[in-house]
């Protein structure tokens, strides 16, 4: 991704239930679509299903703000979303049949400048075992 030298980096926590999690650094001008592709790469999924993002207090709360990715709603930048309102999270739902639901939040780390020699997004930390998109 092309970034100017004024671009800053935000660290995001991405969790899939209690089984897998990661911290990644992304530029604040990353879009939700960019984040979709980054998460797909992290978990080694095939990008062959619909997806959406939404902001909510819990994964099942009906009071949510949804970004419809098929209508260009996922071209919004991370900087336009974070910091999120108190006690809310960004959720990423991939594959409406299997319902892979990732919970995304910003870490408490401050924004930092890009490092010229680093390619973003950058995996900082990973815990648990990656999910298997298509089991036996």
Describe this structure in words.
The chain has 136 residues and is mainly beta. It has one domain: Structural Genomics Hypothetical 15.5 Kd Protein In mrcA-pckA Intergenic Region, Chain A (Roll). It contains two helices and eight strands; from the N terminus they run E-E-H-E-E-H-E-E-E-E. Strands 1, 2, 3, 4, 5, 6, 7 and 8 form an eight-stranded antiparallel beta sheet that branches. The longest helix has 12 residues. The radius of gyration is 14 Å and the shape is globular. It starts with 7 loop residues before the first strand and ends in an 8-residue tail after the last strand. The N terminus is likely disordered.
Salient structural properties:
single chain; 136 residues; mainly beta; Structural Genomics Hypothetical 15.5 Kd Protein In mrcA-pckA Intergenic Region, Chain A; eight-stranded antiparallel β-sheet; 12% helix
- Poorly predicted regions: 1-5
CATH class (first level) name:
Alpha Beta
- Alpha carbon gap, first and last residue: 36 Å
Q: How many distinct beta strands?
A: 8
Spell out the CATH superfamily.
MM3350-like
Rg over alpha carbons = 14 Å
The CATH architecture would be: Roll
What structural category do the secondary elements indicate? mainly beta
What is the overall pLDDT average?
89
Order of helices and strands: EEHEEHEEEE
Give the % helix. 10-25%
| Count of helix runs | 2
Spatial shape: globular
Strand content: 35-45%
CATH-defined topology: Structural Genomics Hypothetical 15.5 Kd Protein In mrcA-pckA Intergenic Region, Chain A
The biggest sheet, with number of strands, parallel, antiparallel or mixed sense and barrel status, is:
8 strands, antiparallel
Overall structural domain count: 1
């Amino acid at each position: 991704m092309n970034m100017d030298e004024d671009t800053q980096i935000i660290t995001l926590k991405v969790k899939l239930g209690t089984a897998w999690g990661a911290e990644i650094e992304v530029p604040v001008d990353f879009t939700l679509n960019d984040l979709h592709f980054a998460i797909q790469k992290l978990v080694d999924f095939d990008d062959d299903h619909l997806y959406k993002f939404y902001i909510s207090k819990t994964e099942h709360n009906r009071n949510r703000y949804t970004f419809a990715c098929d209508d260009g709603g996922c071209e919004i930048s991370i900087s336009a979303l974070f910091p999120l309102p108190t006690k809310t999270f960004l959720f990423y739902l991939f594959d409406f049949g299997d319902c892979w639901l990732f919970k995304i939040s910003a870490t408490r780390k401050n924004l930092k400048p890009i490092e010229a020699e680093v390619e973003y997004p950058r995996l900082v930390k990973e815990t648990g075992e990656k999910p298997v998109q298509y089991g036996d």
